[in-house]
Amino acid sequence: MFNVNYKELTLSFNEFHDVSAKDMPQYGEYCLLELKTGAYTAGGWYPSGKGHTAAGFFLRGTADTVDSEEVARWHSLDRYDLTDILKDEEVNWINLGPEEGGRNVQFDGFKSFADGKKPKEEQFCLLIMKDGSLAAGRWNKWRRQAGGAFIYSSALASHSSEKVWAWTPLSSDDIFAAEVERENEKKREKKLNKNPSADPELFKYGTDINVYYEKALEKLREEFYWATLPMMKKEKPLWQIAPLHGKLVFGQISKNYYDDSDVVTPWTEGTTADEFIDYLVGYTRDAVKRSNPEEKFKFGTDINVYLEKAFNNVKKDYRWLDRKMLGKTWQYDIRKVDGDLEFVRKCWNESEFSVYDVESAERFIESVEYDYQSEALQANKTVATYAPSFGHISLHGWNLERYVFYKLKSGDYKVSVTAGDRVTGGSREFFITPYCFEAKTYEEFLDRYLEIVPDYSFGLGKKELLPDGNLKKFLGY
What's the rounded Cα separation, in Å, for the pair 146 and 422? Predict the structure, then answer.
């Protein structure tokens, strides 16, 4: 690594170009910017017209730009490689561009991640990279792990902290000022919430949220005799009692996306404890209604009864299905969870069962059927494929990318459809049921097939598939 002491290093920028003279950088070139206010920032140049023009903007990050009218001068960051200079331990001053009596600005006070130093959130910084180049960016710490990155362009393009040798802050801006105010507000809120007050009308039954749930439970049992607290608490998010602006409130707590801090959304539909209890009755009513044990466990509490029904239903169409194929992906059971019987399941790579919340025995059986169908298709090897040709097809903002028919070892067929846009995509697989092949003609087959894979959802319809003689032959017609 470099031998220069970054703590004593000064970078002197000497080769500024005036925007007023329409002396602009190359398209996309990243530059140090001196604003007309005297502040310093950085960005990549994007002209707004053709030819020699000063109209345009400097891009600093996603939805983060500086209009050229705000800029007095610019100095390239892309044209320098300091690698050789930084190897000389005697160096403490580096001139960027010749000293000719023009505009000159120095930056020092460099810090390093190696010493545990980090910028403040949303702080725009000048960077010396480990490859000897210069850069800049807005600091964003990573949410779930140590470290962070400097955002410098659109689509969150960034310089990882691992690639930065030293950094120093540039001038404050509106985005950074807003972040500072947000942090100050969090500190004020924390101070207010150390000793929150409680409205006696709102919390006349105390400050244990379970007391309010239990009072709501008493009212629910007048309509649903089977009601329990665990059933009520299936309705998420849960209500809690939390401090907000120095007062206790009934609220729902979520996590701030950016820093994982708690965000309290207060209940605002009343002012008394009894009004909140009535609200809680309505809020949890549907969760209790769909938890009727007589409907959920109408075939008893032996899980094998439900699995057998699902197996027999799937076997009607997936004729090759064998019990040996099952249980490799999902496992099921009926267990007591918080005192209530629940359908539970776990994947092969999970250590514990989780509640499979369904409102009826039939719904649970349907869910198992779906899992069994997937396992059956995985066990049936492909012996031939056919991909019909198609042009550009747009599907609700996505583009059809792939549409393939598969003949399976059992003699059955399935189809796989893939669609996506510039950044994401997805695939779905469909079994072509024997009912479709009971059709006497290819046209009648398509009518039945398109009920499973409709053209308005998956791109190809009768207009495209009916003239395809190769597909007709592939499907046995």
Answer: 30
